[in-house]
Structure formats: C-alpha cells, structure tokens
C-alpha cells in the first residue's frame, strides 16, 4: 500500500477547514444574550461547548497536517542530499 503524506495532509487540512467553518456558522447562529437588544431566544453557555471544541480540534488537525508536510519536506531533502 502506497501512502502519500502530502495528500493525507491536504485532506486533513481540508477536513479541518470544513469543521471550523461548520463550528463558526453554528456559533454565529446562536441567539444573542438576553441583555442585548433583539434577543427573542434564550441562550445557554453550554450551546457553545461543542462548536468551540470543534474549532480547537480543527486547529490541532491543521497543526498535525503542517507537521506531516514539514516531515515530508525534511525527508525529501535528506533523500536529495544522499542522492547528490
């Protein structure tokens, strides 16, 4: 089985971006707090937990993908040094 690290990292970044986008939209759709003008729905702090955690997951996934790309670049550079 041939695994392409760059393709895996790119897919991971794409998935993380979609996860962050979904979480950001969820947060944006939450009703404003009761003290603010225009509030018609109640707001619970627990409504924020899941989307904020999704944003953090997306950040960590992007960081992992970056490290995969850096490791591949380093490995490729080492291989080129050996061949030269």
Please provide a written account of the structure.
- There is one protein chain.
- The protein has two helices and no strands.
- With 84 residues, the chain is an all-alpha fold.
- Helix 1 (5-29) packs antiparallel against helix 2.
- The longest helix is centred in the C-terminal third of the chain and has 35 residues, at 49-83.
- It is rod-shaped.
Q: What is the helix tally?
A: 2
Number of strands: 0
Shape: rod-shaped
Strand content: under 5%
| Biggest pleated-sheet summary | none
Rg computed from alpha carbons, rounded to a whole number of angstroms: 20 Å
**Class of secondary structure makeup:** mainly alpha
Task: Enumerate the spans where pLDDT stays under 50 for 5 or more consecutive residues.
Answer: none
* N-to-C CA distance: 28 Å
Question: Would you summarize the structure shown here?
Answer:
This protein is mainly α. It has helices at residues 5-29, 49-83.
Give short descriptive properties of this protein.
71% helix; 2 helices; 84 residues; mainly alpha
């Amino acid at each position: 089985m041939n695994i392409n690290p760059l393709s895996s990292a790119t897919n991971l970044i794409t998935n993380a971006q979609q996860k962050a986008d979904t979480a950001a939209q969820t947060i944006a759709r939450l009703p404003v707090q009761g003290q603010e003008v225009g509030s018609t729905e109640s707001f619970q702090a627990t409504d924020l937990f899941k989307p904020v955690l999704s944003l953090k997951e997306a950040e960590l996934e992007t960081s992992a993908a970056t490290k995969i790309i850096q490791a591949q670049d380093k490995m490729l550079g080492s291989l080129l040094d050996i061949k030269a």
